[in-house]
Amino acid sequence: MKVTVIGTGYVGLTTAVSMAYLEHDVTCVDVDETKIKQLDLGNMPFYEPGLKELIQLRQDYLRFVTPSREAVEHADVIFFAVGTPANSDGSPNLTYLFSAVAETLDFIRTKNSPTVLVNKSTVPVGTADQIDRKIKEVGLEDRVKVTSNPEFLRQGRAIQDTLYPDRIVVGGDEYSSKLLYELYAGIAEQSFQPPMQALRPVGYRGPEYIVVDRRSAELAKYAANAYLAMKISFINEIANVCDRVGADVTHVASIIGKDSRIGSSFLQAGIGYGGSCFPKDTRALRFIADTNGYDFKLLSAVIEVNQSQKLIMLEKLQDRLGELSGKQISVLGLSFKPGTDDLREAPSFPIIHALLSQGAKVRVHDPVAMDKAMSLLPESVHFAVSATEALFNADAALIVTEWPEYTSLDPKDVVSLMRRPLIIDGRNALQAANIHGLEYEGIGIGSKRNCEYANMH
Ligand SMILES: NC(=O)c1ccc[n+]([C@@H]2O[C@H](COP(=O)([O-])OP(=O)(O)OC[C@H]3O[C@@H](n4cnc5c(N)ncnc54)[C@H](O)[C@@H]3O)[C@@H](O)[C@H]2O)c1
Ligand SMILES: O=c1ccn([C@@H]2O[C@H](COP(=O)(O)OP(=O)(O)O[C@H]3O[C@H](CO)[C@@H](O)[C@H](O)[C@H]3O)[C@@H](O)[C@H]2O)c(=O)[nH]1
């Protein structure tokens, strides 16, 4: 099939490359000329494991272009994967989407064969209906259909999530859902060749293809993200209780996660969620509920807990060091999670700003996100070329992102490098072998793990 993907961000490129992997003929469109030029040269606009290699593998099925009639008019299916960032009131900004839709409708106005427009961007309920009205306004309703096809991939494992999804959700009419079923058939059949075979998650049972009305599909995307964010804020509150009563949240999470009604995922306590999705989408869902006359109290609490959780490391640091002025603090990890260089809503930023405002000297390190971070952080922040340099002579180190580089540090090296071997682990990521001999504190495990392990070794 001929497929056009509009927007070459995480979702657009992953959609494009998975369609190319299934041997569809794919055109990727972006308004950002530099990005298109770089993609054409094989350079990725962001770090996503496996993406570059897969694009190379399927280059015969892919082309990268700026918007034009030619890019869309032959497509059977046109995916929209443009950004929907938050406005200051939390509402999603749909400017990019509606501008891409208007331009596309203009380009395909004289086309005679059918086209299905597929929205992959995360949008408020009723957006596909609005697009439908625009299709009718230009008199294309007999040939052009619109569906909602929300995306559930995670950054850092985008390829795996796309080729091995739990579900493919389509909100639309019978014609569009049948066409998309054909388009996705290769994913349902799962007859992948190496190296993609190796990405198959253990126990994976194939995707469920779910066809619903457009509004339910649109809301399901926000509901999924809000639910996962709720699990994180819940376990973070349990962690805060653990710190006060001397329990260990990792044990509590493991015990409750063994109940199949609860499930063990997304119960990793720490400094809260960041990224381009959970913060934006929880605020958007609250806004959607609010503007429809419903006060979503639980979601407000989820958002509020996440806000305060980001700075919990600072409290722990002050308890140990007192005044932070003049102290040298090493911040390990800048991206919002490992496996990505995405800095959007990363907890590292409020943490660094809080440290600086208290007069601390800050050294940061991240294995992949330093280039992006340099223009975004104040000049007084020192960018260390390695974790070792970041730790040298530090009064304390904060593990903000649990990159393997940090969780595998040899504690003997840490002791010899730091002025005071104090580690505050914002992700509870260090194991016993890596904290021996260190002054260590996590989130909701207090110094308990330290004492237990110290006695054991
Ligand atoms: N990032 C994720 O992990 C993820 C996962 C699921 C869903 N989503 C949702 O998918 C959407 C896209 O997210 P993303 O992170 O991939 O976006 P992104 O911000 O990384 O990229 C969006 C791209 O769209 C391009 N663009 C904007 N207007 C355009 C136009 N008129 N024509 C062509 N290109 C245009 C931009 O130049 C940019 O390259 C958002 O709604 C997001 O909430 C994101
Ligand atoms: O137990 C956990 C799990 C995650 N996180 C944090 O939560 C954030 C988000 O993590 P993750 O969900 O892995 O990353 P995203 O790539 O943002 O993916 C989420 O957002 C996407 C965009 O909507 C969705 O498609 C995905 O299904 C959804 O998982 C990160 O800061 C993590 O550190 C925790 O603190 N504890």
TrEMBL record:
It is an enzyme of class 1 (oxidoreductase). It catalyses: UDP-alpha-D-glucose + 2 NAD(+) + H2O = UDP-alpha-D-glucuronate + 2 NADH + 3 H(+). Keywords: NAD, Oxidoreductase. GO terms for molecular function: NAD binding; UDP-glucose 6-dehydrogenase activity. It comes from the Bacteria. Its EC number is 1.1.1.22. Residues 330-432 form the UDP-glucose/GDP-mannose dehydrogenase C-terminal domain. The keyword Secreted does not apply. Belongs to the UDP-glucose/GDP-mannose dehydrogenase family. NCBIfam families: NDP-sugDHase. PANTHER family: UDP-GLUCOSE 6-DEHYDROGENASE TUAD (PTHR43750:SF3). This is UDP-glucose 6-dehydrogenase. The gene is ywqF_1.
